[in-house]
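Course exercise 7: structure representation. Students receive a sequence record and must write out the corresponding structure in C-alpha cell form. The form below is the worked example handed out in class, using Dehydrogenase patE (390 residues). Read each field label carefully; the graders check that inputs and outputs are placed in the correct fields and that the protein name is recorded exactly as given.

STUDENT ID: A-19
EXERCISE PROTEIN: Dehydrogenase patE
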Amino acid sequence: MRFAIFLSGSVLQSRLCYAAKVADEYSHLFGTPSQSETFDYLIVGGGNSGLVAAMRLSVEGNYSVAVVEAGGFYQDDAGNTTEFPAYNSQYMDEPGTIDWKLTTKPQAQLGGRSVAYAQGKTLGGSTARNAMVYQRGTASFYDLWATAVGDTSYDWNNILPFLKKSVSFTPADGELRGGPAGTSDMTAFDPEAGPLNVGYWNYFVPVSAAFAKGMETLGLVETPTGMNSGEVLGYAQFPAAIDSETQLRDSSQTSFLKAAANCAGERLRIYPNTLAKRIVFNAKKAASGVVVSSGGPEYVINVKREVVLAAGAFRTPQLLMASGVGPPGVLEENNVTTVRSPRIRCSLHSRWCLTAQVVEQPEYKALAEEEYRQSVSGPLTAFAVNYICK
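STUDENT ANSWER:
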C-alpha cells in the first residue's frame, strides 16, 4: 500500500542548486552517433541495473563498456520535478517527459479506463521518477530464490554484502526533521560504501503520526531495526535514495554513472537518446551486437563478450521478440524470424496503488521554498508519509 500526497501549483522555474546542463558533465563519455564501434560489453538500458553493471564492469572489471539509453538526462529534461522529493507527486498520474508513456488496454473492472504503466526513459531509468523509498526484501524471500535456482549465492547472507557495498547510509537528523528520527539497523549498512546515497528526509510529514497510529490500531508493531535488516514485518520509517546534504534525489545516474565517469576513463561510453532496435546474432546464434538509432540512420554497436539487456520489465522482452527471441506464434504474426523460442512475456505481475490528494496553499508553498533555501529542510524534502508497512 502506498500513499501519495499531491502538491499542486507550479514548480520552481530556476534550479535551486545548479543551473548548468547535466549532459555537459558527461559529454566526454558520449559515443559517436551513426559510427559503429566495438566494446567488450554493450548494456541496453541506462536505468537502475544497467548503470550499476556499467560501473562494475568498466571500473572494477576493467572492461570496455557501452551503454545505450533511449532517453537523455532527467535534470535537463524535467528539472526540479525529478529532483525535489515533494514534486515526485507530479509523476503519479502524468508520466511527463522522462517516461515511455505506456498504458494498458481499457480495463473492464475500471469502467473501461486505461492505466498508466510507469517506466523511466532517461539515464537513471525509473530511479529518476520513483518515490525514492529504499527498502530491501525480507531475508526469507532471498533464501527462497536461492532454493528455486539451486544457488546459495542468492540467499540473504550472501546477497547482503553486495547490498551494503552499493550504499552510503546517513542516519536521520532529528533536529532538522522535526519528528521521530526513525530506527535503522546500522549493521545492515556500511557508512563508507556507496556510491548510492541513502538517508532520511529532513521533514516529518504531519500525517505520518496518524499513519503510525493507524498501523498500531491494526495490530502492527514498529520494527526496531527498520526495513533493511531482512526482517520487515510491521511498519517503520523508511530511508530514501537522496543526497543527505542537498536532500535531492540520488538516482543510478547521479550515483553509479557519476562514479564510473570519474574512474572508468576511456573504457566507458554512453549513447543517450539512442534507441536499441534489435539484437544481432552470429552464425552460432550468439549475440554479437545491437542495431541502434540515435535519431538518424541505423548503425551497429558490436561486442566481443556479451550484450546485457537491462531495458526494464516491458522493453527487455519487447527487444528480445523484435530480435526473434520469443513465442513463435507472436513472432510470426509480426513477420519476425524466430531465432529461439523461450518463455517470454509470460510472467508480468501488477499491483495496485492507493493515493490521497491534498491541495496546497500558494502561500505555504512559498514558505516551503524559503525553508529549503535557508536550511535544506521542510516540506520540499519529503514525499507522502514517512512510514511504510509490510
